[in-house]
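Dear all,

This email documents one entry for the complex benchmark we are building for the journal club exercise. For each entry we list the sequence lines for every component of the assembly. Then comes the predicted three-dimensional structure of the complex as a token string, followed by one or two observations. Please use this as the template for your own entries, and keep the labels exactly as they appear.
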Amino acid sequence: MNHKAQIGILVFVCLAMAFLAGCGSTPTTPVYSYSVSGLEMSNPQGSGPYYYAIAGSVAIDNQGNVVGGEQDFNDGAGNTSPGDAGATPTPDTIQATKAALVLTNGQGTLTITTNNPNIGVNGVETFGVQFVNQKHALIVQYDGTATSSGSLDLQTLPNQLNGSYAFAMNGMDPDYEPVAFGGVFTTGSNGSTFSGVYDENDAENGVSTGNLFPQGVAISAPDSYGRGYITGLGEGVPTSIVYYVVGAEVARLIDVDTTDAGLGSAFGQGSTTYSNTSVTSSVFALQSNSHGNLYAAAGQITSPAGGVYQSGIADEDEQGYVQSGVSISGTYSISNAVNESTYNGYGNLQILSEDEDFNIANLGVYVTDPSLNLSDPNNSTGGGGALIVDLDDAIPGTGIMVPQTDTTTANFTGSYAYGAQEYFCDFCEFDVAGQATMTAGTFNGSGLISAPDGFVFEEDGTAIESTATLTGNPLPDSNESTTGRYTLMTENETENPLILTVAQDPIDFDVVIYQASGGQLFWLNEDDYSIFLGPIQQQGSLTSLP
Amino acid sequence: MKRSFTALSICALVYFALILSPLRAETVAKPAGSLSYDISKEVTFNATVSGVLAKPNRGMLMGSHLLLSTGGGSIDASLGSFGLQGKRAVSVVAGQQVEVTGVLKSIKNKPVFLTRIVKVNGESYAIRNQRGVPLSPEARERLSRKTAGGGL
């Protein structure tokens, strides 16, 4: 064999090896950021349930094996990830576990084994998982020690906090009373500079707006799992917040102080300068936390212009006191000044209603990049919108407001994933994540329901982690083409409540649905014995999942 | 002259206070809805407990309730989500005398007493905070530590 032939064979072998091995690079294990909040019973001192939040990152290979990860857990009542009590908050570690993610058609369970024995079942948490697409799932804790709702999203690294963000968080203050806060901040690379403004609604201390962050806020660089921490934020907000990067413009935030707790998100604002013209017809949805002054609300505003919207409709359920289909109008202002400095996208929206019992009148509005989807961070459609904080006295809550782009009933069709965080009767909660089809006007599906022992169905004396079916026929309002609102109500002329069936036991729920588009909807349960709020998101491809 | 100077100083202080105060997010006064809690409208009265409801009857607010008999009739006293749950929960049975402090509201066209404090057998139980938000067992515990030696 001559020299040229040898070189040719060598090149061929190298090319073949490069093709087979991806040009010599090591395949990267996908990492997912996740977060949930709800009620937990695993606190060692007992006497729960307590509010709690989890945020973390977990690497899962394409066989469903957990390769590693880290997370932070906090209930603000003595059950905080031990490393977070130190001067430098350090996470619980997630151990490698074979076959941890088990799915059938995008639905299943994820087992996360941590080094923290005070959470889950001796440190092992199980989550019910419902994938919406290959990069996004709705999750509920599903192991009898806690119940909660949240999401799991494919993480893109390296990314760090750098630029302008809107943020909102919801949780418990140091007196263990509910609190919500949100605003906007701008930071240089890894916190080299930090400035911003925030509003706060504390159930004990009331509402304060236009609070400036102090100098000296420090942001650590993210580690290999996208985790970093923020300290020195000043009064009224947590001493230490841990963040988990989801992508270039999205991070999950968790309060890791030992005496208070909370969870939220930060979304980038991009390079847009926002004004009153930035607000379009929108759907909003917001909710107290599970341990708060229990309420949830959803609604819609039509054709806002020049700081005014003439019409809209909204629903609210506060402690079982329901205001259904209330006509609203109001004003709004985007990019307001504090101390003569204008903060981009720092806004507010007022709601006026002839129904004096409709209790939501003031929302803080913090505008995000239009290229983001606030419910599905890896999805570039959705049109952005805003994070919102309820600034009405005694009802702290957080949520989102998203552009309403398509109210066509015919486009509410196909396969959807859904979630619901339910406050049921008294000091209890259950959570659901599942999938359904909307076909010929019938919404029909099956999901995973989590209700630890004593939270719900206490007559049975058992925890419920099982499948639950649901079915219903959403009835478009007569003006649905304007509002995007549907109802499933026992009081409709033809009774059509949503029927959730658990262990062959059907339960009726009066529900309204607001359609932002055919791909993104929200539903609100408004009964006197129960409240839930959650997303309905059109499903994408579920191929290539473990 | 001195008085003028003082008046001018006060005007200047007010002016600068207005100029320098944050232009905060506008909030509008909302109507005093049925679930709003105005502490200036609180009343305190004695009653006999005719019923203790750990779970609400259909049509009631969520949470636990005391059914109270007074000279003027019976009343539904809402204890919120946590009143009968966990540490420092109200300990009461039917037939006992109680003193309750709260605000009387009309909810769903029925009178409902949003209870902030229940006193029974010489014990005082905090049910809501001064904004009417129900206190969880952990919040009650922390409030108790804060107010140890003082009143509610």
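Observations: Helices of chain B lie at 2-20, 137-146. Residues 73 and 143 of chain B are 33 Å apart (CA to CA).
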